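Incident log, structure service

09:12 report received: a user says their structure output differs between two submissions of the same chain.
09:20 pulled the input from the user's history:
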Amino acid sequence: MSSDRPPAGRFHDLLTRTLTGLVLGAVTLAAVAAGGVWTALLFALAAGAMIWELARITQTPIAAGVMILMAAGFASVLVTEAVLFRYGALVLALGAGLALATGLRRDPALLGGYAWIGAAMCCVEGLRDDPLYGFEAVLWLFVTVIASDVGGYFGGRLIGGPKLWPALSPKKTWAGSLAGMALAALTGAVFSRLTTGTFVHEVAPVSALVAFVAQLGDLGESAFKRRYGAKDSSGLLPGHGGVLDRLDALMAAAIVSAALTFWRGKSIFIW
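09:34 re-ran on a clean worker, output below:
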């Protein structure tokens, strides 16, 4: 998530990151608040953009196969909104089959990344579809991941210290990771108290867990890009790189949150 320009200080990219984040936040909040097809369209577009970025990173030609994957990723989220998550997953499987039939190379990284992106966006839509706390669930997911990112950003730059995993991400530190988890726990607890008020003492540790998972998602994408020699997934989002760079942490958090919610068969705030 770094800029192409040489750093002018520890916070050289803060203004650009903040402005882009505010715009993205406003659009996302409006779409998630509206619910239904508006939420689905937002995350369907995100899925299509990230699959395009995935092909770009893996140096896969943007031909018929990739276009089919993009269309299937887009459609899977809309199908999840219209019917159920399992049918969205079926669309993803059919899309992969059709893409391979067109001659798309059987690249495990490309196909695995496609499935991960599509499933994650379907999970976000599935959480929003909950009639009881759908809006709060998605909002909690976002604020928790953002808190983890903000805590990690400032904790890493102000405290520094040993690197978390220098082979994958040379900038991330243990201090930043712990600061991100702590801020996520606090933010999750405050959010629960101000909204649903349910099980605040449980929401706090789960928020910290989700923050940790989000950090793993961020590290995973860093490892993926490093494997292919890519710095950013694209330049679509100034200060953040590409959509995949911005949502890598959210996708991991969404899949874990949705798995927990769907497995229990209850709303995310009623574990």
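09:41 both user submissions now match this output. Likely a transient worker issue. Closing.
09:42 reviewer note: The first strand starts at residue 163 and ends at 165. The radius of gyration is 18 Å.
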